Structure prediction request, 519 residues.
Amino acid sequence: MIDLFRDTFRYRELIWELALKELKIRYKRSFLGFLWALLNPLLQMIVLALVFSTVMRIPIPHYAVFLISVLLPWTFFAQSLSYAADSIVGNADLIKKVRVPKVVFPVAALTSNMINFLLSLISLVLIVLVLRHPFYWTWFYLPIPLLALTLFTLGATFFFAALNVYYRDVTHILQILLQIWFYVTPIIYPIEIFGKYQWLLKLNPVIFALNGFRMGVYAGHLPSGQSVLASFVCGLVALVVGYALFRKNQDQFVYYV
Amino acid sequence: MQTNSIAINVENVTQRFRVFKERPDSIRALFAKFFRHEIQVQDFDAVKDVSFHVGQGEMVGIVGRNGSGKSTLLKMVAGVYQPTTGRVTVNGTIAPMIELGAGFHMELTGRENILVNGLLLGYSKREMREREQTIIDFAEIGDFINAPVKQYSSGMYMRLAFAVAIEVDPDILLVDEILSVGDMAFQEKCFERLRRFRAAKKTILFVTHNPSDIEEYCDRAILLDHGHLLLDGKPHEVIETYKAISGAVGHPHEALEPAITS
Prediction:
């Protein structure tokens, strides 16, 4: 695990440039450029908010804030995973020709999505302003769930990036998995609708970190200590398992990409 | 040999590839084969028990026919491959890249690519900023440096790639087919730069298909065949042998003809 931090630190400039490169390419030749990082969640949110508050009539005040406070971190998680799963295979040309620690690729994919996420927070602020939802002091708490979510995402990222080297089916399976995962996570609905079966949802390892976001932005109070602890336990376990798999196989990647 | 200190030491290295006769690359294929016991693997040594060393300040060329293990050997020296057995030791900084322009991204500008390429080679952002102007000047790219690399002509692309590789100034330079860069004038400039590079006691190990490059520039040459080191010696000896084995196998008729006429 120490070598993960050592390599990440030593190659921090490379990781940063690779992340910027990914964003530049993602928004290249688009007229609005980086504005899309803001517009995407905004438009997505408007559609979902319209559907759920006017068509489905979910009786939740300021539903848009309720939704987007969790949707944005979820998007960070899901998109990091989709990008990172392909990060080793996608950089095959490089890996076959240059000696470079393999961890830089998934970490760079996560970093670019982190930048995207932080930009998209501006749209969250806009929505909170427009709906006149109160700005709670608990916004200051958000770095904590973000850290827990990042640990979990990083672990999952290593896991899928490594598997995808050997079996390209993984990218496809991952897309389906993420869709199912989206619906079994209380993002568009509150956890309470599951009544006494709420414990079932709590088997979901991302729920605790995401809960921190909803608490901080929408509810305005801190999550329970138990929930915070659970979010970090899930994050660390994912990181340890994911990185162990990645590390054990990283020298073999070059022969399979 | 100009000096007795060793820059690259290759000891009994073997690179074994596991070749799936039909590699299952989807889970379905894997299961199907697993349950029918159909996975057939075959070990194949691309490089077999090769030993040699390169002294500091030497320029050594590797020749051999296609599939003789030249690139595999270079990749092991670069650290892209870990040798299956044996050991590669490198003294000094090495640009761990086996192809010029590896890692260039078409959508990025020349300037951005210089930075990313340098960072990939293990240099810092500050070091690359310092070298940036030298690289741009050497490559003769001009204003195009701020245009995406995809708009470059292939000559410009290769010039920039060569400039980055040599101006980051490693102790050891590894290249696959280094000397086919640009037009005549630029090639001359490259050789001039390589001479200065070597005058600074720097080491070059390169792979080529062009025998005249070896004879003209190298101190020594190494001939690989079917993964074995066939010969390690003076450039002209190696070239003679290389021509002989290429002729004998590649063009059987040509090889026979002299025997009949003489």
